[in-house]
Write a structure and sequence with these properties.
The protein is of the alpha+beta class. 21% of the residues lie in helices and 22% in strands. Strand 1 and strand 2 form a beta hairpin. It binds guanosine-5'-monophosphate and zinc ion (ZN).
């Protein structure tokens, strides 16, 4: 396993506020929330980001989006939320383990910064 923050959270070596877990992913609260609801949807498989995914990851990527919709429903934000991934440093990626941010509970501006 690489020396990876999110792999350590998945392995329970670092605590998190976990709100969903299944065989393929975990969902936990972001430590620096940017909206009333701000969670991270993280595959258990270590892959550094979206650009590092391959065709074999298509089912996993679809699963992550279905989980996002489920979590949004559970959080009461299904009427308006944003799902995004930062890919690469210039896009703001700071943790090199694929993750989607799910944000909601406030109006979202467009375009994002
Ligand atoms: P990125 O910048 O890579 O798109 O997103 C990484 C996210 O991970 C950031 O929003 C940051 O607040 C969050 N984060 C960083 N370290 C931790 C941590 O130890 N625990 C949790 N729950 N979130 C973290
Ligand atoms: Zn990892």
């Amino acid at each position: 396993m690489p020396d990876c923050l999110f792999c350590k959270i998945i392995a329970r070596e670092i605590p998190s506020q976990l709100i969903h877990e299944d065989s393929q992913c975990v969902v936990f609260k972001d430590i620096q929330p940017q909206a009333p609801t701000h969670v991270l949807i993280v595959p258990k498989k270590h892959v550094s980001g979206l650009s590092a995914c391959s065709d074999e990851d298509k089912p996993l990527l679809g699963h992550l989006q279905r989980v996002a919709a489920f979590v949004a429903e559970e959080a009461g934000i299904a009427s308006g939320y944003r799902l995004l991934t930062n890919n690469g440093r210039s896009a703001g990626q700071s943790v090199d383990h694929l993750h989607y941010h799910l944000l909601g509970g406030r109006p979202m501006n467009w375009p994002p910064g």
